């Protein structure tokens, strides 16, 4: 069932309540049978349920934390036979009196006596009225009055009255049927019993007659009651004052067909909430970047992610996090809106993306920002060409879709009302209409395309009027300028022979994660893409980690681009100056900062989002900023030396920074920390951290020697002390390898840096043994896991691409070149069709995991290719 169909056909307020109900932690969906999932017919034996309702109840029963039930006046045996529902769907018969087929054996002596008297009375009625439809039940009988008129009707009513007067007999009147029973139970009682057994879930109950009123009356504020009645044609709202349908139910439905629609929509919304919508493979999302703003495009040319004005700001489109309600911007062929594109690719060595269908093409890019426009502004350009008709849906949802959005049509397009920054879609010649889309509004347009006259859509974020004016005046010229600048940058790189084009794309991706105005470098463009589907390992990576940023800049220096390294080190110097103003030294730096140097928001959860593939929580902010990560000094020191070698000179400021890094190591290298993997548990003496402390001093000594700077008198001894400490305490003779931390036996792929850093020579048996151990214990097929030990978090994760690259480099270093090339080929086979690499790969499910595009992964790809090209 298409949720859009339910949205179109159901009362808007009812749909909102269903949507809210579908997000309950525990959910029970219960219905009556006749008149709800099955139509009322003359012969009860022919009242078959609607197939859509049966499928929905089955589907609900299969969902996690979800239960479905049918509570009917029919006998349990009859209900099971007629409904054909599986055992997973709870069936309750006789208005709540029957919950199993051995029901009669559970009757009390007085109930059995009353039942005997009732059956004698029923036999007398049958003898007097042999054509009267009497349906026997374990606790009594149902007398059907449908079709009876005149004297026959009066005779039947009189008979019912005599039976109702029998001691111990109670009656429940429905639509043209009277149930006589010796059990004092109602559907409300049955519903409450189910609730208690299931742990008090939120309830949706659907019924159609007076026998369902006790169930409606039992519902709480968070529950929803729906009643099928002819009065629904005049009024949709229930309640005691509802005209012609006094009821405790909140809303009225017209019949079993509408019940089926409701149940199907609950299934779709519940499944979307629990698992997210059918998730696009993470590696199929493609990065757009202009050095200030990032966005992600899915394989159907839908903009699914666009934070603004900063990379860590609230996102305008967040559909990637599991819900259309969080915002998207789509362009599809109007004739076949569900058709898959025939191709999607970057235009040459650029961040300009082209998606093509048979008759429609869309070219997307973020325009270079004009100098005259204020910082933080941007223009997303979408150019439509072809011979057919395109359907445009513009559904902006600022703040991750947390609040309803209102749109205003303007003389040049569509504007978002009340946003914290100006957001306007300018589309000359395109006639939009605004439609209600849940609680928010969406702009929709159909436009006729011609190859000779492209349709240009310019989404202006902030006050980028000069950039927008240039786009609208000559979009082709703006695109050509963006293309040329990107191609010129790539053309100056020294790309390896090994996978030249793919390495060039990885370099472009890393450059796209660099924030040119500040010099900060993102670890990834997204938040909360899961490290395990359905798990809680969902983190916000839209910040600059000192470690990750330095490694990114260093990889680009290795390829011949130094501007990013200079920008990053200038950014870092600003961070250090700001810290000094607060009385903090280099050794007290946090492991990560926002790209603009501002404090991170407190790590929080966006409760309204279902998450990618139902993986919750969705987090913003990152609590790792408060951790102690003493390894960060090593990559920074390595970057400074790499840049100095590239430039042929070491600046005074960079030398001063190196000195400060060595002093920080001298003061703290002996301390425990949280390590590279940011374990959310007590600090340890992590081997990788100690190696990075060694690397800091080693690189500073190398810089002093190469560039004529005065090394500290104690630096060589400090380097030697750290190495001796690592070798004596980090190598575990029982395991036969370096392990994650002193005194522990668990392996960690980061321990490969005892050799990768140069601390141990490549022929050192301890390094070679560690390479073998990591390959043997942490590798699975094309990927390598960080570790296997319990890190204190529930759930599993995938292998890390950067760990795979470390093993590739290590295999190459120890002379196993063929094995290194084989693993590199298998790693490259996992790269997405447009060159994207997320953080992780699950070799069992054969799917990517984690935030994307991940700087670590592309760094690893570049470093491995360079190693294999030496």
Could you walk me through the main structural features you see in this protein, from its secondary elements to its overall organization?
- There is one protein chain.
- The protein is 36% helix and 18% strand.
- It has four domains: 3-102 and 183-275, Rossmann fold; 108-182, Alpha-Beta Plaits, CATH 3.30.70; 282-491, Beta-galactosidase, Chain A, domain 5; 500-869, Glycosyltransferase (Alpha/alpha barrel).
- The chain has an eight-stranded antiparallel beta sheet with strand order 16-17-18-19-26-23-22-21, with helices on one face. It has a seven-stranded mixed beta sheet with strand order 3-2-1-8-9-11-10, sandwiched between helices. A four-stranded antiparallel beta sheet has the order 4-5-7-6, with helices on one face.
- The chain has 24 helices and 37 strands.
- The protein is α+β, with helices and mostly antiparallel strands and 870 residues long.
- Helix 16 runs antiparallel to helix 17 (652-668).
- It is elongated, with a radius of gyration of 34 Å.
Task: Give the SSE map.
Blueprint: H1 3-9, H2 12-21, E1 27-31, H3 51-62, E2 66-71, H4 76-83, E3 90-92, H5 109-128, E4 133-137, E5 140-144, H6 150-164, E6 170-173, E7 177-181, H7 187-198, E8 202-207, H8 213-217, E9 224-228, E10 237-239, E11 247-253, H9 256-275, E12 286-289, E13 294-297, E14 303-305, E15 328-333, E16 343-346, E17 353-356, E18 360-366, E19 378-386, E20 389-395, H10 398-401, E21 407-410, E22 413-416, E23 423-426, E24 433-437, E25 440-448, E26 455-461, H11 465-473, H12 475-491, H13 500-512, E27 544-545, H14 546-559, H15 563-581, E28 592-593, E29 604-605, E30 619-620, H16 633-647, H17 652-668, H18 687-707, H19 715-729, E31 731-732, E32 737-738, H20 753-756, H21 765-778, E33 779-780, E34 783-784, E35 799-800, H22 801-813, H23 817-828, E36 840-842, E37 847-849, H24 855-869
Parallel strand pairs: 1-2, 1-8, 2-3, 8-9, 9-11
Antiparallel strand pairs: 4-5, 5-7, 6-7, 10-11, 12-13, 13-14, 15-20, 16-17, 17-18, 18-19, 19-26, 20-25, 21-22, 22-23, 23-26, 24-25, 27-28, 29-30, 31-32, 33-34, 35-36, 36-37
């Amino acid at each position: 069932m298409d949720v859009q169909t339910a949205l179109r056909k159901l009362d808007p307020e009812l749909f909102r309540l269903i949507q809210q109900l579908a997000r309950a932690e525990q959910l029970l969906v219960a219905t009556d049978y006749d008149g709800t999932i099955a139509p009322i017919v003359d012969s009860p034996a022919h009242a078959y349920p609607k197939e859509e309702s049966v499928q929905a109840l089955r589907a609900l029963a299969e969902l996690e934390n979800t239960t479905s039930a049918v509570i009917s006046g029919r006998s349990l045996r009859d209900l099971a036979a007629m409904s054909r529902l599986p055992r997973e769907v709870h069936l309750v018969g006789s208005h709540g009196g029957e919950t199993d087929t051995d029901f009669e054996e559970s009757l009390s002596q007085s109930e059995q006596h009353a039942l005997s008297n009732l059956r004698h009375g029923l036999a007398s009625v049958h003898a007097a009225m042999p054509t009267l439809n009497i349906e026997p039940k374990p606790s009594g009988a149902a007398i059907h009055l449908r079709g009876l008129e005149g004297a026959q009707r009066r005779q039947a009513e009189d008979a019912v009255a005599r039976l109702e007067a029998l001691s111990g007999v109670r009656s429940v009147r429905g639509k043209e049927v009277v149930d006589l029973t010796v059990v004092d139970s109602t559907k409300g009682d049955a519903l409450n019993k189910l609730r208690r057994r299931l742990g008090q879930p939120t309830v949706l109950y659907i019924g159609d007659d007076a026998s369902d009123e006790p169930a409606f009356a039992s519902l709480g504020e968070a529950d929803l009651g729906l009643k099928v009645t002819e009065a629904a044609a005049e009024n949709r709202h229930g309640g005691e004052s509802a005209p012609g349908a006094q009821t405790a139910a909140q809303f009225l439905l017209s019949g079993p067909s509408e019940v089926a629609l409701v149940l199907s929509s609950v299934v779709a919304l519940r499944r979307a909430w629990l698992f997210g919508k059918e998730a696009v493979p993470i590696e199929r999302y493609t990065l757009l970047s202009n050095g200030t703003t990032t966005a992600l495009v899915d394989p159907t040319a839908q903009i699914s992610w666009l934070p603004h004005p900063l990379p860590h700001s609230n996102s305008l489109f967040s559909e990637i996090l599991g819900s259309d309600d969080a915002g998207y911007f789509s362009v599809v062929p109007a004739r076949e809106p569900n058709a898959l594109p025939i191709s999607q690719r970057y235009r040459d060595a650029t961040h300009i993306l082209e998606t093509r269908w048979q008759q429609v093409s869309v070219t997307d890019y973020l325009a270079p920002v004009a100098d005259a426009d204020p910082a933080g502004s941007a223009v997303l350009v979408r150019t439509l060409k072809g011979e057919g008709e395109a359907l445009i849906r513009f559904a902006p949802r600022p703040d991750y879709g947390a609040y309803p959005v209102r749109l205003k049509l303007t003389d040049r397009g569509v504007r978002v009302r009340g946003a914290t920054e100006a957001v306007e879609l300018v589309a000359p010649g395109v006639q939009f209409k605004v439609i209600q889309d849940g609680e928010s509004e969406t702009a929709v347009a159909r436009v006729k395309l011609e190859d000779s006259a492209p349709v240009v859509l310019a989404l202006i974020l902030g006050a980028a009027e000069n950039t927008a004016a240039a786009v609208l005046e000559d979009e082709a010229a703006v695109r050509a300028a963006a293309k040329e600048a990107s191609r010129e940058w790539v053309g100056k790189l020294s790309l390896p022979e090994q996978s030249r084009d793919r390495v060039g794309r990885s370099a472009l991706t890393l450059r796209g994660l660099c924030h040119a105005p500040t010099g900060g470098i993102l670890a990834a463009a997204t938040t909360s893409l899961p490290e395990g589907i359905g798990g809680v390992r969902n983190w916000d990576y839209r910040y600059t980690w000192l470690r990750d940023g330095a490694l990114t800049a260093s990889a680009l220096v290795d390829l011949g681009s130094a501007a990013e390294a200079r920008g990053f080190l200038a950014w870092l110097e600003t961070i250090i100056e700001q810290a000094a103003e607060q009385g903090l030294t280099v050794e007290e730096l946090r492991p990560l900062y926002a790209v603009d140097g501002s404090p991170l928001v407190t790590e929080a959860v966006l409760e309204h989002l279902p998450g990618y593939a139902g993986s919750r929580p969705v987090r913003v902010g990152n609590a790792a900023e408060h951790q102690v990560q003493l390894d960060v000094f090593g990559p920074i020191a390595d970057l400074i030396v790499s840049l100095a070698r590239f430039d042929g000179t070491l600046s005074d400021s960079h030398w001063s920074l190196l000195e400060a890094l060595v002093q920080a190591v001298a003061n703290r290298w002996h301390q425990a920390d949280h390590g590279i993997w940011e374990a959310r548990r007590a600090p340890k003496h992590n081997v990788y951290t100690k190696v990075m402390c060694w690397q800091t001093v080693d690189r500073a000594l190398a810089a002093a020697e190469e560039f004529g700077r005065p090394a500290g008198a104690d630096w060589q001894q400090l380097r030697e002390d750290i190495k001796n400490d690592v070798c004596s305490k980090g190598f575990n003779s029982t395991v036969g390898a370096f392990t994650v931390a002193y005194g522990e036996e668990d392996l960690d792929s980061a321990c490969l840096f005892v050799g990768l850093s140069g601390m141990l020579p490549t022929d050192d048996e301890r390094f070679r043994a560690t390479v073998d151990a990591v390959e043997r214990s942490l590798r699975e097929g094309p990927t390598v896991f960080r570790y296997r030990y319990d890190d204190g978090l529930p759930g599993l994760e995938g292998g890390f691409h950067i760990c795979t690259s470390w093993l590739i480099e290590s295999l190459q270093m120890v002379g196993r070149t063929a094995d290194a090339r084989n693993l590199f080929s298998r790693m490259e086979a996992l790269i997405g069709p447009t060159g994207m690499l997320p953080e992780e790969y699950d070799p069992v499910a054969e799917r990517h995991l984690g935030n994307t595009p991940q700087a670590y992964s592309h760094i690893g790809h570049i470093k491995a290719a360079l190693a294999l090209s030496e």
